[in-house]
Design goal:
The chain is an alpha+beta fold. The termini are far apart. The strands form two sheets. It has a five-stranded mixed β-sheet with strand order 2-4-5-7-6. A two-stranded antiparallel ribbon has the order 1-3. It has two domains: about 70 residues; about 150 residues, Histidine kinase-like ATPase, C-terminal domain (Heat Shock Protein 90), CATH 3.30.565. The longest helix is centred in the N-terminal third of the chain and has 35 residues.
Length: about 240
């Protein structure tokens, strides 16, 4: 069975690599095309290019999720923790999410206090978790709403990051199941936003591999807050 899991992970890695390379080239090409023709394109063409890039980005995220899932099931998801500042880990993610949010009139708020201790974490994996939570928050928040992320040492030795939104909220009976593979909240099923239902399952595995935990706090109609903990680095 272990040999089968390894073969499955290797096969998934090969397929994802073959898909990721052309997708990355397509995304880069679209960005170069837009940059060189900025100001000279009709608004309709700009919208078409935006839609093309968005579709390519979603497909790239999809194949990456499937690769991570295969690695998780084979016990081969690599975590390389080192002392990192939380603000540094969140910087690129929040900037990318802000661009996505501003196009829909959604405000993004970030509150990371100075003097917050560094965490022992794999920065790329934590960015992956933060991106999943923040991009989900933007997806399910109506136009003109707000999303945000906070960080604080709520428990000695642990930093808690909270990603919140002003979206429709999640029924209590669905909250625990959200972190299972291929699960989505009923609010997602009723919306135009589609996904694989893998992102939160992968996020949970990454957080737990760091020794932390992840959970959701929400009430229908009152938004949602996804929180996770990371250990403070020993320095």
């Amino acid at each position: 069975l272990e040999r089968y899991d390894r073969l499955q992970a290797d096969f998934a890695s090969m397929i994802v690599h073959d898909l990721r390379s052309p997708l990355t080239s397509i995304i880069s090409g679209l960005r170069i095309f837009r940059r060189h023709l900025a100001g000279a394109m009709e608004e309709r063409l700009v919208r078409v290019l935006d839609a093309m890039e968005g579709s390519a980005q979603r497909l790239l995220a999809l194949v990456t999720d499937f690769l991570d899932l295969a690695k998780l099931e084979a016990g081969r998801l690599e975590i390389r923790p080192r002392p990192v500042p939380v603000a540094e880990v969140l910087a690129q993610v929040t900037e990318a999410v802000r661009l996505q949010a501003e196009s829909r009139g959604i405000s993004v708020r970030v509150a990371v206090p100075e003097g917050l201790p560094r965490v022992a974490a794999d920065p790329e994996r934590v960015e992956q978790v933060a991106w999943n939570l923040l991009s989900n928050a933007v997806k399910f928040t109506p136009e003109g709403g707000e999303v945000g992320v906070t960080a604080a040492e709520e428990t000695p030795g642990w930093v808690t990051l909270r990603v919140w939104d002003t979206g429709p909220g999640i029924p209590p009976e669905e909250q625990e199941r959200l972190f299972e593979k291929f699960r989505q909240a009923s609010t997602a099923a009723r919306s135009a936003v589609k996904g694989t239902g893998l992102g939160l399952a992968i996020a949970r595995e990454i957080v737990e591999a760091h020794g932390g935990r992840i959970w959701v706090e929400s009430e229908p109609g009152a938004g949602a807050t996804f929180a996770f903990t990371l250990p403070v680095a020993r320095e």
